[in-house]
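Reading group handout, session on sequence-to-structure problems. Before we discuss, look at one worked example. The prompt was deliberately terse, the way you'd type it at a terminal:

> structure Protein YjdM

The input record follows.
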Amino acid sequence: MSSLPKCPKCNSEYTYEDGSLLICPECAHEWTMNDSGVENNEDELIVKDSNGNILSDGDSVTVIKDLKVKGCSSSIKKGTKVKNIRLVEGDHNIDCKIDGFGAMQLKSEFVKKA
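And the output record:
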């Protein structure tokens, strides 16, 4: 029995071969035998703004349309500049603080890099 490498994503030992791919049944991650020795860059989060520019932690962005805020009678106006963003996983992938609103999450499709 050959010893297959552990999953590089979740470190599971239950990997199996399917043709030229190695597959993890726990997290459904797929990779090739050539990639197993090299750390994959899939852990790196890539977020793009509405124009296709790649965003990174600490960037400043500008809101491109009025955004309604749940539980608040006012909205975030178009042109509002948001400084020092932080990228997170999920549907709303920008974590930030907006003056007058506090901490919140935004979708990257509604901002552009400043």
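Points for discussion. First: The two ends are 56 Å apart (CA to CA). Second: Residues 36-40 have pLDDT under 50 and may be disordered.
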